[in-house]
Amino acid sequence: MNLIPRNFFLDDFFDDFGKVRVNDMKCDIYEEDNDYVVEMDVPGYNKDEIDIDVENGYLTISASHSDERNEENKNYIRKERVYGSTKRQFYVGDVDEDSIKANFNDGVLKVVVPKKEEISNKKKIEIQ
Question: pTM to 2 decimals?
């Protein structure tokens, strides 16, 4: 009895050939009252491995971790869990950077980005 299908290794090689890897950080972005809300799945990462930055109107969320485990005794047949870094960037425009809040729970990152109050520069000119 063979536990591994006949073309197991060769089929796997060609499964991903030519395909672009889809980013693992899937997200939903929506408006709520006067805020933008980003809810992003960040599975397999700890809170201290995630960075959130805002610069020039761009919100950048990046996550990275490394494989530091000693696995010399394991004879892998297939290893799909990769270690490294990933990043997503979104244009949020002019926002209140000092009031941005983030929460991380059960692999889901929630970032609340308050919009700046728009000050109208419009001035009515009377005709004489």
Answer: 0.68
38 pLDDT more than 80: yes
Distance CA 108, CA 26 (A): 10
Which CATH number among 3.10.450.60, 2.60.40.790, 3.50.50.60, 3.40.50.300 corresponds to the domain 24-67+80-114?
Answer: 2.60.40.790
pLDDT digits 0-9 by tens, 100-110 = 999 999 999 99
Residue with the bigger pLDDT between 56 and 116: it is 56
**Ordered DSSP codes for 59-114:** EEEEEEE------TT---S------EEEEEEEE--SB-GGG-EEEEETTEEEEEEE
Greatest Cα pair distance, the chain, in angstroms, is 97
Provide the mean pLDDT of the chain.
80
Is residue 38 classed as helix, strand or coil in its secondary structure? strand
Report d(CA 121, CA 82) in Å as an integer: 51
Q: Using CB atoms within 10 Å of the CB of residue 47, give its burial: 0 to 12 exposed, 13 to 18 middle, 19+ buried.
A: exposed
